[in-house]
Model the fold of this input.
Amino acid sequence: MKKFFKSGDPYVWLTASSLTICLLMVCGLITLIMIKGLGIFWPHTIVHFHLKDGTTVLGEVSKKEPIPYEKDGYRTKLKIGNRDIYGLDFRWIDDDKIVSLEYPADAVAIERREWGNMYGFLQGIIGKNGRIEAIQQDGAKGFINENKKLFKKIRQLEKKEIGGINYQMEKKRIIVKQLQSLPPSDIVQKKMNGVKMKIDALEKMYHEKETLLSNLYQKAREKEFIIRLAGGEEKILPVFQVVRMYTPNSMHVFAKTGFYLTKFWEFIADEPREANTEGGIFPAIFGTVMMVFIMSIAVVPLGVLTAVYLKEYAGDNFISRIVRISVNNLAGVPSIVFGVFGLGFFIYLIGGTIDNVFFKSSLPSPTFGTGGILWASLTLALLTVPVVVVSTEEGLSSVPGSIREGSYALGATKFETLWRVVLPQAAPGILTGTILAMARAAGEVAPLMITGVVKLAPSLPIDHHFPFLHLERKFMHLGFHIYDVGFQSPNVEAAIPMVYTTTLALLFSVLVLNITAIIVRNKLRKKYRMSSV
Done:
């Protein structure tokens, strides 16, 4: 036995077993997230239950489980929707209370812009003249598609046209405030009159667009569906509130697959709705990726310069040892502490100073003196700088001394050797630190909660208004989106699948960012691969 342990085979098996367990845990976690999250887009069968008390219930079966503390008793969790009517999305039904169940082919599931799904039977449509007409599912799709175009037109009018007018008016008002702060003169008064004329013209355009918007909303309310619920009562539903209407019980596999792909694309490309529990997550994906890029641009130069100085110039003295200890200790500081530092230093000190110097006319409304994507990115850059420093030092240490000596022998200075020989050789190590920093920053939430992330951003940090890139704006983040949907949602139970799906999107985003950096690192490693003599 002693000889067996000395051979080292048990330790090989121990390390291999540890690796296998880690891989199984990671794969199990990802599989669980995929199973829980990706099923949200599939059109589930609608079941019509008839109960012993004479009532009927309509909805999607969510799960079935044994009744706690009751032998041989089972119950079914049913997603009944119609939250505006019943006050809840789910209902438990004991199986012994079910008389019969059926799967009606004409049962419709309706996705709404508010109040979640509705389940029932399509009875007809009320036109603008108040006349009720019978309608089939295919005919309803035409009205829904027509109102979708109307909704897009309304959103275009609200966000682009009216929003653009408001943006220009605010800029003109700031110019007026700036002119009012100057000493009175004929030139100043002339400029002020010209700006006020432009503001009057913009206000006229605003009222015209507002009237057009009011007419579009009135047109959107002209048609209404009549939906018969499971209990027999009828519900009037404006067509404009319908996102999608479908009959899952009559859909074949290919139709369901097409439906699934359409819903999946909407999840990736659309904006959220219904308190972030429905719709898409595109603003959160965009904000996460943009924040990681800004953070990387800030942390790489800072970390590399620090590591180069410590490794190549500072030497091994008392001060450099203190700096190394401080950098290593930074890695153990709780992330919320970095958030508090970012709030006090970046937002209140630097941002407040920028507002007082460059945006004084916009005060008391802050421009940079409030949370934004720039300050959040810089805060995370400080959080991840120890990773880049350590990785860069390791990369510099891996460069053989013979390469440096050969460069010196050819007459190169220390800086030329560092810039043209050492840093290219250490680039794979630098990119390794960048990869680790990106992965860490993409998943952080606590510092962002006090430095610029919001539940719902009114606009993206990039738009068509000069200077096009607005680093002072607040943004959405996938990590915070998961926290908000999972713990701050008004209907947490219905939002659970969205939590898993958003988690999967976050993992995929981090994977794409990391793979991109790994490909670049491997190309550099292959380019500068050199055997030491």
Notes: The chain is about 60% helix and 15% strand. The chain has a mean pLDDT of 87. The radius of gyration is 31 Å. The first strand starts at residue 46 and ends at 51.
